[in-house]
Amino acid sequence: MAALAPLPPLPTQFKSIQHHLRTAQEHDKRDPVVAYYCRLYAMQTGMKIDSKTPECRKFLSKLMDQLEALKKQLGDNEAITQEIVGCAHLENYALKMFLYADNEDRAGRFHKNMIKSFYTASLLIDVITVFGELTDENVKHRKYARWKATYIHNCLKNGETPQAGPVGIEEDNDVEENEDAGAASLPTQPTQPSSSSTYDPSNVPSGNYTGIQIPPGAHAPANTPAEVPHSTGDIRLTPEDFARAQKYCKYAGSALQYEDVSTAVQNLQKALKLLTTGRE
C-alpha cells in the first residue's frame, strides 16, 4: 500500500482523537480497513469539534486527503463499499482484541501489550459509531476495556499487583475521564509498531479464545445463551428487524473468516432469536 501524505501537527482542540489517529497509523499495513475507519471516525469527530479555526480546517483537509487516498486504494474491498460488512469487520476485530486482553487478564498475565490491547479495543468500539449507535453490549465492552486498561496501568505503575477479572468494578465508575491513563504507557507520537506491540487478531489462533465466558453482572457482557426460544405465534417482523438479523448473519460470516466459531455461533443465535421471537 502506498504511503499516505503526513498530517500537520495535531491542533490542541483535537486531543480527544489523537489515539484513534495513532491506531489508524499502526494499522496501515496490518489492517487497512481498520486504519480507514479510524481516520473516518477522527474526521467526523473533528468536524463536530472545530471545523472553522484555520489550523483545524487545515488538519481536517489533510485528513480528508488521506481518507480519499485510502478509499481509492481499497476501492474493491467490500468492507469499504458495504457498510454492513465494514461494521462486521470492525466489530469482530475489536472483540478479538478485547478477548485477547481479557484472556491475559484472567490468567493473571499483566503486561503493557495487554493494557494496550484493552485500550485499543475501546478505541475501536468508539470507531464503530461511524455506522450508527452502539449496541448495549459494545457500550459495556468499551467501558470495561477502558477501565481495565486504566486500572492495570496504574497498578503496575505503583508497584501493585492487579486483581484479575471483573472484580471491584462499580457501575458508576467513570472511566471516560481517565482515558489518557490507559494509554499513558504508549508512545506519544504515532509509530509503526513491531509485531509484538499489540495484539493482531489475524496472527493468533482462534483456539486461544474458545470457551471464554464472561460472568453475568460484570461490565463484560455474558455470552448469548445457547437456548433460543421457539416462536410463540404469529411474529410480525419489521424491516428494521430483518436488517438487524441480516447484520448478525454478516457478523457471523466475518467471524468465520477468522475461524472464530464462538463469535459466529453467538451472532447466528442472535439472528435466530430475533427472527423467532421478534426480540433481541
Automatic annotation (TrEMBL):
<feature type="region of interest" description="Disordered">
    <location>
        <begin position="161"/>
        <end position="229"/>
    </location>
</feature>
<keyword id="KW-0007">Acetylation</keyword>
<comment type="similarity">
    <text>Belongs to the VTA1 family.</text>
</comment>
<dbReference type="InterPro" id="IPR044538">
    <property type="entry name" value="Vta1-like"/>
</dbReference>
<dbReference type="Pfam" id="PF18097">
    <property type="entry name" value="Vta1_C"/>
</dbReference>
<dbReference type="GO" id="GO:0010008">
    <property type="term" value="C:endosome membrane"/>
</dbReference>
<feature type="domain" description="Vta1/callose synthase N-terminal">
    <location>
        <begin position="16"/>
        <end position="158"/>
    </location>
</feature>
<dbReference type="GO" id="GO:0005771">
    <property type="term" value="C:multivesicular body"/>
</dbReference>
<feature type="domain" description="Vta1 C-terminal">
    <location>
        <begin position="239"/>
        <end position="276"/>
    </location>
</feature>
<keyword id="KW-0963">Cytoplasm</keyword>
<keyword id="KW-0967">Endosome</keyword>
<keyword id="KW-0813">Transport</keyword>
<protein>
    <recommendedName>
        <fullName>Vacuolar protein sorting-associated protein VTA1 homolog</fullName>
    </recommendedName>
</protein>
<dbReference type="GO" id="GO:0015031">
    <property type="term" value="P:protein transport"/>
</dbReference>
<keyword id="KW-0472">Membrane</keyword>
<feature type="compositionally biased region" description="Acidic residues">
    <location>
        <begin position="169"/>
        <end position="180"/>
    </location>
</feature>
<comment type="subunit">
    <text>Interacts with VPS4B. Interacts with CHMP1B. Interacts with CHMP2A; the interaction probably involves the open conformation of (polymerized) CHMP2A. Interacts with CHMP3. Interacts with CHMP5; the interaction involves soluble CHMP5. Interacts with IST1.</text>
</comment>
<feature type="compositionally biased region" description="Low complexity">
    <location>
        <begin position="185"/>
        <end position="206"/>
    </location>
</feature>
<dbReference type="InterPro" id="IPR041212">
    <property type="entry name" value="Vta1_C"/>
</dbReference>
<dbReference type="InterPro" id="IPR023175">
    <property type="entry name" value="Vta1/CALS_N_sf"/>
</dbReference>
<dbReference type="InterPro" id="IPR039431">
    <property type="entry name" value="Vta1/CALS_N"/>
</dbReference>
<keyword id="KW-0653">Protein transport</keyword>
<dbReference type="Pfam" id="PF04652">
    <property type="entry name" value="Vta1"/>
</dbReference>
<dbReference type="GO" id="GO:0032511">
    <property type="term" value="P:late endosome to vacuole transport via multivesicular body sorting pathway"/>
</dbReference>
